[in-house]
Design a protein that fits this description.
The chain has four helices and no strands. The longest helix has 20 residues. The relative contact order is 0.05.
Length: 98
């Protein structure tokens, strides 16, 4: 019974969000749905990757390359300890695309 109540609350929240939109927001959401339906599967994949934080533009890739390069230079040129490949590296929480 509590699952049903929770589902009804979620549905009412969605309904409330949809009915409180301005005219411009309604048009924008309709355009977004139409664009998504007509979109190429490859473009959908790129959008989903961007939503989860993966790099999708050349600027993103350049940023990551610079980060990796500077980490490498610091570890080799200055003989600093590389924390990415240490003894406890398997416990590390990786956040490569900040």
């Amino acid at each position: 019974m509590s699952e049903h109540k929770l589902e009804m609350q979620q549905l009412s929240q969605i309904y409330s969000e949809e009915t409180e939109k301005s005219f411009r927001e309604v048009l924008d959401s309709m355009d977004e749905r139409i664009r998504y339906r007509r979109q190429d599967p490859q473009e959908k994949l790129i959008d989903k990757l961007g939503d989860v934080g993966m790099p999708v533009t050349h600027d993103d890739f350049d940023y990551i390359e610079h980060r990796i390069y500077h980490d490498y230079v610091a570890a080799t040129d200055f003989q600093l300890k590389d924390h990415s490949h240490g003894e406890e590296s398997w416990k590390k929480n990786w956040t490569p695309y900040e």
